[in-house]
């Protein structure tokens, strides 16, 4: 069950507080509705996410109170669509709530399940739980081999399909030099095998514990980092025998580095987050 949008205050002077954070350049607007519930409409999310007419972000995060956990977290892409998971957003929210509460550990409820975070210094670790590895759990349209999707696209190797609560398509490449990421991302994100769309990652294995990755995020486009994409890449690399199981893997993205461990059961993801600024926006922004 997801929270329903609440009506806006009936006043021309309505102000809403927000916090801006980023994880490796993957940036977020956080609306903390735990005490004063507020869920923007689709059009309002698009306006807030706009980097010229709004505040600007890759994803907008809405927090609500939860009787059994530290918060209920909803995630909206810049195009207004709601998605199931975002690892960098989870690290940002975990760090935000840790600072607010003084507790290092936070448990967040999301539409994809529970996420456990732990903040120490400027680093936050998230237990992402087990990856989803079957065609049904990933959300594929056909019963195909998820580890080697039969796309049959010339000049591209068969990708792996992984879900970290949200869908991913991971290509392992010999090199990422001259990669036409924007063109390929636009073409592949709406592939017929993924009825709900997918995030698209291109990875180059540098060693058994280091991989370079670039990403096109569903509903957002090219971003400097994607934590669930980093997790999906390490899971796919371990399952293909390219990366070490149970050991921390360095995932090098355009925005920086995440450390990801997959032991065959759960995925742990660790990295830094930054508080950028906070403020209020006027409801007239939506007029």
Task: Describe what this molecule looks like in 3D.
This protein is of the alpha+beta class. It has 2 domains: 15-124 and 273-286, Diaminopimelate Epimerase, Chain A, domain 1, CATH 3.10.310; 135-265, Diaminopimelate Epimerase, Chain A, domain 1 (Roll). The protein contains 5 helices and 17 strands. The protein has helices at residues 42-49, 87-101, 135-138, 181-188, 227-239, and strands at residues 15-23, 26-33, 59-64, 71-77, 82-83, 105-110, 113-120, 123-129, 160-163, 167-172, 199-207, 210-217, 221-223, 249-253, 256-262, 267-272, 274-282. It has a 17-stranded mixed beta sheet that branches. The longest helix is centred in the N-terminal third of the chain and has 15 residues, at 87-101. It is globular, with a radius of gyration of 19 Å.
């Amino acid at each position: 069950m997801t929270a329903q949008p609440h009506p806006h205050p009936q006043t021309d002077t309505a102000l809403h507080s927000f916090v801006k954070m980023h994880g490796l350049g993957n940036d977020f607007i956080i609306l903390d509705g735990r005490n004063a519930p507020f869920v923007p409409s689709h059009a309002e999310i698009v306006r807030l996410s706009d980097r010229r007419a709004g505040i600007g972000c890759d994803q907008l995060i809405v927090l609500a109170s939860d009787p059994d956990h530290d918060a209920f977290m909803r995630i909206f892409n810049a195009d207004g669509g709601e998605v199931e998971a975002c690892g960098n957003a989870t690290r940002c929210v975990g760090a935000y709530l840790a600072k607010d509460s003084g507790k290092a550990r936070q448990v967040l409820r999301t539409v994809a399940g529970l996420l456990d975070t732990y903040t120490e210094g400027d680093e936050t670790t998230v237990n992402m739980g087990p990856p989803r590895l079957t065609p049904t759990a990933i959300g594929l349209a056909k019963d195909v081999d998820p580890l080697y999707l039969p796309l049959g696209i010339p000049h591209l190797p068969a990708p792996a399909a992984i879900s970290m609560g949200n869908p991913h398509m991971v290509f392992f490449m010999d090199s990422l030099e001259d990669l036409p990421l924007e063109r390929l991302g636009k073409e592949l994100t709406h592939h017929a095998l993924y009825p709900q769309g997918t995030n698209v990652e291109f990875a180059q294995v540098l060693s058994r514990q280091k991989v370079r990755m670039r990403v096109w995020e569903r509903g957002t486009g090219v971003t400097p980092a994607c934590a669930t994409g980093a997790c999906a890449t390490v899971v796919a690399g371990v399952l293909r025998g390219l990366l070490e199981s149970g050991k921390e893997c360095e995932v090098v993205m355009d925005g920086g580095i995440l450390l990801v461990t997959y032991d065959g059961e759960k995925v742990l993801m660790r990295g830094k987050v930054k508080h950028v600024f906070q403020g209020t926006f006027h409801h007239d922004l939506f007029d």
